[in-house]
TrEMBL record:
Keywords: Ligase, Lyase, Menaquinone biosynthesis
Keyword Ligase: yes
Known pathway: Quinol/quinone metabolism; menaquinone biosynthesis
Protein name: 1,4-dihydroxy-6-naphtoate synthase
Gene: mqnD
Keyword Lyase: yes
Top-level taxon of origin: Bacteria
Length: 287
């Protein structure tokens, strides 16, 4: 039986979407999934090095790894009226060249931030360290992600929502692409289809059984937040829209890549649906 490495972040939505597999509710055919949890920028960097078979990534990274990894249709996170937050100390005014902490060079929030604030001085920190860096004055501001957007120190305030920047850049009718998953292209196509279908099923099962799964994750100490915060966070990032990407979500991804290309961050213009696993192969083979 093949062992396939599957890497995801330790934040609540990734843990939730993956643990239907971990608990044995969904299993891949003729393979064993071995999961690794790490912060999203570490996963981005690992994907650049080709370390994992399947890996969660920031959507903004994908154009840099498209030749080696296919984009998966499932386990996706999009913001709709919400997303990362640029925060600062209350009562302060940011200068044009303010110093800011971002959660990683290849994160989606970093791409959007760089387009909006070309003169900012950027430093990269683990997302768990950003709030404290703003509070102690190491940086003037920081972009909070994951569960941090729901609970942050009362001495801080939101300077700007990344969602609002996205609306201005994209035209205002698209969800904000944040994160997804990719799969190593060197895997046999039939296996790739099997693994993607397994992950689609896992996200679907987790979502349908949320009232059972969420308390289990809390009881086992697998989640950093309490039940109330977990419920709010899953509403945002692990929901019906996470199971399988829609045409609107593909359109949003294409807009993200268009903005990155026009602003000089990508060498080529990427169309997301050109880089999916051709699952129709399975149907053709069955005829």
């Amino acid at each position: 039986m093949k062992t396939i490495s599957v890497a995801h972040s330790p934040d609540a939505d990734d843990i939730f979407m993956y643990y239907a597999i971990k608990f044995g509710w969904v299993t891949p055919k003729d393979a064993k999934f071995e999961n690794i949890a790490d912060d999203i920028e570490s996963l981005n960097q690992a994907t650049l090095k080709g370390e994992y078979d399947i890996c969660a990534i920031s959507f903004a990274l994908y154009p840099f790894v498209k030749d080696d990894y296919a984009l998966l249709k499932t386990a996706v996170s999009f913001g709709e009226g919400y997303g990362p937050k640029l925060i600062k100390k209350k009562g302060t005014t940011l200068k044009k060249n303010f110093k800011v902490a971002l959660s990683g060079e290849f994160t989606t929030n970093a791409l959007i931030f760089k387009i909006a604030y070309p003169n900012a001085r950027i430093t990269y920190l683990n997302f768990l360290e950003i709030e404290e860096a703003v509070l102690n004055g190491t940086v003037d501001a920081g972009v909070l992600i994951h569960e941090s957007i729901l609970n942050y120190n009362e001495q801080l305030e939101v300077e700007r929502e990344i969602w609002d920047i996205w609306v201005e850049l994209s035209g205002g009718d698209l969800p904000l692409p944040l994160g997804g998953m990719c799969l190593r292209r060197s895997l046999p196509l039939s296996d790739a289809i099997n693994y993607e279908n397994t992950l689609i099923k896992a996200v679907e099962v987790a979502n349908k059984n949320r009232k059972v799964l969420a308390p289990m994750l809390i009881e086992k100490g697998l989640i950093r937040v309490n039940a109330e915060t977990l419920d709010k966070y899953l509403d945002l990032y692990a929901n019906d829209n996470s199971v399988k990407m829609s045409e609107l979500q593909y359109k949003a991804l294409d807009k993200l890549y268009e903005l990155g290309y026009k602003n000089g961050f990508y060498e080529n213009l990427v169309k997301s649906q050109d880089f999916l696993i051709p699952s129709e192969y399975e149907e053709l083979r069955a005829k």
